[in-house]
Amino acid sequence: MTTDIEQTEVKPKKQPKRKIISILKTIMLYGLMFVVIYSVVNWWRQPIMPANPQLQLTDYQGQTIDLAAMSHERPTLVYFWGTWCSVCSFTSPTINKLAADNYPVVTVAVQSGSNQELRGYLDQHQFDFTTINDQQGNIFADWQGQVTPSYVVLEDGEMTQGLTGIQPLWSLKLRLWLASVF
């Protein structure tokens, strides 16, 4: 009588060190994929400076703001947002901190109601940044804005960077510093 002896192949268990390395490689691969996809989407959605941009604007309080002159002194951040934008409720406090730290910041409130409604919103949230009320969304449309929040860094009256989405304070400070150095 012949018996078939089944030979089972036993896989050796991965050593803990190899398992950790494998997990780290996977995390790095997914992280790299995220950064590449995020960068492409951000590049695609970023505002685009118009050929003849209107850089002399009036804020909701009637004060004239000359973005070209501001950006000749130091790189200036232009922040497009809306009172209706849920993501902006996270980014606007960061912009307020940036402005409080004496960085040149001008915000454009896109379709956020009348000047009185905008003033009430800014007071309620204790935002002190300079704000232009783009009631009809014309300024944002001129910049081919697609999403809020969007950001533009101006230097010497020219756009050097454009970005969208949630941006941490350190990232915005770094971008303004880089614009001043290069």
Helix content: 40-55%
The biggest sheet, with number of strands, parallel, antiparallel or mixed sense and barrel status, is: 5 strands, mixed
Structural class: alpha/beta
Total count of helical runs of at least 4 residues: 6
What do the pLDDT scores average to?
92
Number of strands: 7
| CA-CA gap between termini | 86 Å
Could you list the spans in which at least 5 consecutive residues all have pLDDT below 50? none
How much of the sequence is in beta strands?
A: 15-25%
Shape call: elongated
Strand adjacency order, main sheet: 5-4-3-6-7
Would you list the SSEs in sequence order as H and E? HEEHEHEHEHEEH
Radius of gyration: 25 Å
Task: Describe the protein's topology.
Layout (H helix, E strand, L loop, with lengths): L15 H30 L10 E3 L5 E3 H7 L2 E6 L6 H13 L4 E6 L4 H10 L5 E5 L3 H5 L7 E6 L2 E7 L4 H13 L1
Parallel strand pairs: 3-4, 4-5
Antiparallel strand pairs: 1-2, 3-6, 6-7
